[in-house]
Amino acid sequence: MNYQAIIFDLDGVICSTDAYHYLAWKKIADKIGIDFDEKANNRLRGIGRMESLEILLSSHSGRFSEKDKKKYAEEKNLCYRAFLQKMSPADLSPEVRTTLDQIRSKGLKLAIGSSSKNAKLILQKLGLENYFDAVTDGNDIARSKPDPEVYLKASACLGIDPSRCLVIEDALSGLEAASAAKMDSAAIGDAAGNRQATYHLSRFSDLLLYL
Description:
The chain is of the alpha/beta class. It has helices spanning 18-32, 38-42, 49-57, 66-84, 94-105, 119-126, 149-158, 172-180; strands spanning 5-8, 109-113, 134-136, 165-169, 184-187, 199-200. A six-stranded parallel beta sheet has the order 3-2-1-4-5-6.
């Protein structure tokens, strides 16, 4: 396939902020009185904040008003953003940076397609704020993955047909979003063995084998 653009998920692909997400959600869960561990946290990967909160609250017998939900979501985000302040360019893997440079040298466009509303902050902390040709994140969409909106908006921003875009994902919801957008996908990390992906990566640089 002659791809013209590569669209990357952010968390778990370009960098890893899973530990920060877990600690922030754990703080909220403890406050409400919900048992929450890293296994439960895996259910929240790749989806938006409010959707994640609904999953978290589903294990509690109580009822929560929309005002309460908004408060808990905001508290989680404030906690998470505090953790993100610790990030720096040193948190970006040399392999990731080198691979991105090699992809760019091939004349391909690069984009971010993330459900996170903190994508631009993370890119800034990593020193990548001006690196991608388009950044579409949770602030730009109404529906989180597995809805294809974030990837379709990224391809539109690039001006490239979805069929010429390759998505890089580490979560099932992201692979489903890519499929719904009629885009090929390469799975890495926890999603590497998923049959829904077009390609399966053992490491980030394996992406170069398919370009």
